[in-house]
Amino acid sequence: MKRTLLLLSLLLAGPNALAADGNKAPPPVELSNLLPPPPAAGSAEARHDLDAVLATQHARTAADAAAAKADAERSVFRFADALGPDLQADRLPRTAAFFKRVASLDKAEVKQAKNYWQRPRPAAVSAQVQPLAAEKPNDWSYPSGHSTFGYTAAVLLANMLPEKRAAIFARADIYAQHRIVMGAHFPSDVEAGRLAGTVLGGHVLDDPSWQADYAAARAELRKALALPETPAM
């Protein structure tokens, strides 16, 4: 409940906090000032987090593992199974360029937050965790970078393609949950990624310096998916 209230407060404050002057770019986002801290080591919440990772690992099937590994790719084109086979990088150069820029923004903002909290990955907390891939040294756990990107992309896609909003966010949920299946993140890391992605998506939408690239990607994407230039109200 506290995290939901925090998200609502960020969304309500976002336009004023991030774009008080419509002619100026919003200030840089500092996620460490916006997200709640991760569960304290040794706390009941941290134990619950670890238990959830282990339970997911115990239930993990070969199909689950394969799907999670495929979603390790940080790309908007992982949403193709929700948006259709026409979502292809080679057919959508402006969309690809826009979301590559988004991924760079996300990576920089998440790195700042990860270095601030320095939460160890699940496998570093418990030898019982068997991750499906090795993580880079000193790449901390909180918040989840993949989850952040998934939800940032979802916010932007949902604004470009409001007709497909439900499918987009459902796909983002799966993309984020696959980080737990991978054994790479705790549930609270993923939840923090949801909050972070929502904030960063709003930041992009409010920042004038993104508008030309956003509009070009939106027009290209709607045309490729055979949607009208302007969504029906």
Structure description:
Mean pLDDT is 90; it is low at 1-23. Helix 5 packs across helix 9, helix 7 (145-160) packs across helix 9 and helix 8 (165-181) runs antiparallel to helix 9. It is built from ten helices and no strands. The protein has a single domain, classed as Phosphatidic acid phosphatase type 2/haloperoxidase (Vanadium-containing Chloroperoxidase, domain 1, Up-down Bundle). The longest helix is centred in the middle third of the chain and has 25 residues, at 93-117. With 233 residues, the chain is mainly alpha-helical. Helices cover 61% and strands 0% of the residues.
Low-pLDDT segments: 1-23
Oligomer: single chain
Order of helices and strands: HHHHHHHHHH
CATH-assigned fold name:
Vanadium-containing Chloroperoxidase, domain 1
Key terms for this structure?
233 residues; mainly alpha; Vanadium-containing Chloroperoxidase, domain 1; 10 helices; disordered N terminus
Gist of the model:
This protein is an all-alpha fold and 233 residues long.
